[in-house]
Amino acid sequence: MAQCSFCVQTFTTGIYHTWFGAYNAPGAAQLSLSLLTFISFFIFLERYSRKQQRFHTQSSINNAHTRYPLSGIRAVLALLFCIFPVLFGFALPAGLLIQWATESWRGVMLDRFFSDAGNSIFLAGVTASLGVFIGLLMAFGSRLSKRRRIHWAARLVSLGYTFPGPVVALGVLLPFAWFDRTMDAWMQETFGITTGYLLSGTLFILVFAYLVRFLALAYGTAESGLGRITSDMEDASRSLGKNTWQTLKQVHLPLLRGSVLAPGMLVFVDVMKELPVTLMLQPFNFSTLATRAYGYATEELSRKPLSGA
């Protein structure tokens, strides 16, 4: 985590150190609840300020913009203004990472590297597929249903992206750990066998936490894509005798191809680089590129983490 690397004390680092440093799960839960309440308050204010404002575009043709030709010092300043963010925000850091990773490549175990890369790609692929599917279902249900409960439920599910990773990880782990302990106690009392941790410490809880964290990306993109589909198209489909599912299949889905690919890529990339949730919920003997790079960095092993980065 960047805060730990730069020794910056934030709420999220406090939660992480309280849990893993002081082994105080109740204290970490109290900190998480405080942060959760604080963030939820501002989200409520933002939602309330917009209330029921919704719109869709009547045309896919963008409005024409007036071009202003620049010359002289204005052209130079405009060019520098556009180049500097790309140069110092991407090109220069990426070039240094590639150079340092090439220099330290021999110190990295290739079999471990490819294993971590495979784990990262697997988790990202599964989460992206499930996220897009669930996001589309939520967006369709919110659009077709007239009940306010459905809209509020969809909004509530998509709030995970606004919360820090440690808060999401703690919020997911505690109820699953309680379920595992309860099930294990019942199995021992009833059948005399122990089940251990059925869900905690498995890939299931990790993917579930990813979905809680990044489902808002898939849902938001699908919802905005549906907003560009006018109600006239749906009315025309129904006038031709098509039911709801046929309208979704023949009208909505073909128009939402871009809204399916884009969130899938966003979720995939975010899961690939997600560190706090993976670090706190990963199973034993399981690592990703992000956690491996973090491990090398915390052990101060020169430039080894750059290969994972």
Task: Write the topology of this structure.
Elements: H1 2-5, H2 11-21, H3 25-50, H4 73-103, H5 110-144, H6 148-157, H7 165-191, H8 203-227, H9 231-239, H10 244-255, H11 257-273, H12 276-281, H13 289-298, H14 305-308
Helix pairs in contact: 2-3, 3-7, 5-8, 5-11, 7-8, 8-11
Question: Any overview of this molecule?
Answer:
The chain is mainly alpha-helical and 309 residues long. The chain folds into 2 domains: 72-103; 109-308, MetI-like (MetI-like fold), CATH 1.10.3720.10. It is built from 14 helices and no strands. Helix 5 packs across helix 11. The mean pLDDT is 78.
Structural descriptors:
globular, 2 domains, MetI-like fold, 14 helices, mainly alpha, 309 residues
The total tally of domains equals 2
Helix amount: over 70%
Largest sheet: none
Q: Which CATH C-level class of the largest domain is it?
A: Mainly Alpha
Number of DSSP helical runs: 14
| Beta-strand proportion | under 5%
- Poorly predicted regions are none
Average residue-wise pLDDT: 78
Short recap of the structure:
The protein is mainly alpha-helical. It is built from 14 helices and no strands.
